[in-house]
Design a protein that fits this description.
about 450 residues, alpha+beta, Uridine Diphospho-n-acetylenolpyruvylglucosamine Reductase, domain 3, Alpha-Beta Plaits, 4 domains, seven-stranded antiparallel β-sheet, 16 helices
Length: about 450
């Protein structure tokens, strides 16, 4: 039987005495379950704590000050860059039990939630009151609001509505020394000093522990329609996107290249002609009259760009099925190869075509399949280099391909991450994009909030 370190045994005893309602797991099976995320990077924690209230969290933090152990905040572990992996062991602080919607305030157009609220659950709770929280990451049925804030998650609707940070009005956070900060508030405008809450969007749990978030919400759009458009080439599809965005702002435009399209073709409601090389999912929302007008324009632009087929989802259930196919695409890639190097790069809209062209060349030169899809309406593409981690010749080539991808993205004035964050898998490449003075400034901010570097150490740039 595994013997725990003395420090962990002492900490565990003290927590059980002073914080008796706090859930505490230290068995090996539980620790194994909280040792990784979707990055498949593995590091075993010594202890998992599950506060359900601020009081329980505060009690734990007061005790933890006396024990020099790293604390890694975790949500639902759906991240893909290793941001929630406890690389230095120590304590995992799971927010899964802090899962209450504390209040829905239609009059002030806001909602107050704990960090463990599942994003999809929040969507449905708001929709029952004809309200709307736009951010919709692919893992919305599993991921949490706290995780979304920590990674500044986006999703398909970002083209029209923006990403998570656009909806943060305020939050409550605990720093590593146990200090409680109330940031922002309930107003939609607030310039009283520095906007510290914005620092926590994308901070990946390295600055503090979020215990409550006040989020902006909108009226639910009157109607929503989803169009599936098929194209004979990637060039035709991307040219269509460019033309669409000059005329309209759909709520979402999702793109699939040939490899991704072929992967989902058996699940689509319509059979694909052999000459289809790419597809777009175009979602429109708003008033009935406005959407009808948009649909006419969308049809014209798609046909102008040689669309082979154009179909409108006949019901919300059919639209949900199409979105389900899109959301299942990432795991479906494992039918191509056992290892996926997935990177959520983003470039200015005019540089999408040059990037996709470069990916075709890269795939040929590496002799590895690359599948590309994503939120093309805001330039955010998910590039998947498929390989086998156990293949001594293919895997190093794939890693070299990642480096070439990032250098090309930066050359095209883009970013190595649009919504997944840096975590562990991208931190070696962050200096490619950010200058030394910028990185040093970020490290100073980290030092100010977490001087002993106990919160999620080893991530982003540390």
């Amino acid at each position: 039987m595994e013997k725990q370190p003395k420090t962990i045994r002492e900490l565990t005893r003290e927590i059980r005495v002073k914080c008796p309602s706090l859930w505490l797991w230290d068995d090996l099976e539980s620790r194994l379950n909280f040792a990784t995320d979707r990055s498949a990077i593995f590091s075993l924690p010594d202890l998992i704590v599950f506060p359900s209230t601020e009081e329980e969290l505060s009690c734990f933090m007061d005790i933890a000050q006396r024990y020099p152990l790293p604390i890694t905040p975790q949500g639902a572990r759906t991240g893909t860059t290793g941001g929630g992996v406890p690389v230095q062991g120590g304590i995992v602080l799971s927010t899964l039990r802090m899962n209450r919607i504390e209040s829905i305030d239609p009059e002030n157009r806001l909602v107050i939630v704990q960090p463990g609220v599942i994003t999809g659950h929040l969507h449905r709770a708001l929709e029952q009151q004809r309200l709307f929280y736009p951010p919709d990451p692919a893992s919305l049925e599993l991921c949490t609001i706290g995780g979304n804030i920590s990674e500044d998650a986006g999703g398909p609707r970002a083209v029209k509505y923006g990403v998570t940070h656009d909806y943060i009005l305020g939050m409550t956070v605990f720093l590593s020394d146990g200090k409680r900060l109330e940031l922002g508030g309930m107003t939609h405008k607030n310039v009283a000093g520095y906007r510290l809450s914005s620092l926590f969007a994308g901070s990946e749990g390295t600055l503090g522990i979020i215990t409550s978030a006040t989020l902006r919400i909108l009226p639910l759009p009157e109607t929503r329609h989803l169009v599936l458009s098929l194209f004979p080439s990637v060039t035709a599809a991307l040219t269509c996107v460019s033309d669409l965005l000059l005329k309209e702002t759909p709520s979402a435009i999702e793109f699939m290249d040939r490899r991704a399209t072929r992967l989902v073709q058996s699940k689509l409601p319509t059979s694909l002609p052999e000459k289809v090389e790419s597809l777009l999912l175009i979602e429109l929302d708003g008033s009935g009259q406005a959407v009808t007008s948009q649909l006419d324009i969308i049809r014209q632009i798609c046909h102008k760009n040689a669309a082979i087929g154009l179909s409108l989802a006949k019901s919300q259930s059919e639209a949900n099925k199409l979105w389900g196919i899109r959301r299942s695409l990432s795991p479906a890639l494992y039918s191509i190869a056992p290892t996926k190097l997935n990177h959520d790069v983003v470039v200015p809209l005019r540089n999408i075509m040059p990037l996709v062209d470069k990916l075709d060349t890269l795939s040929e030169e590496l002799d590895l399949p690359i599948a590309t899809f994503g939120h093309v309406g805001d330039g955010n593409l998910h590039v998947n280099i498929m390989t086998d981690r156990n293949n001594p010749s293919a895997y190093p080539k794939a890693l070299h391909g990642v480096e070439r991808l990032f250098r090309e993205v930066i050359n095209l004035k883009g970013s190595i991450s649009g919504e997944h964050g840096i975590g562990l898998t991208k931190k070696a490449y962050l200096p490619y994009q950010l200058s030394r003075p910028v990185l040093e400034t970020m490290k100073h901010i980290k030092q100010m909030f977490d001087p002993e570097e106990r919160l999620n150490p080893g991530k982003i740039f540390s």
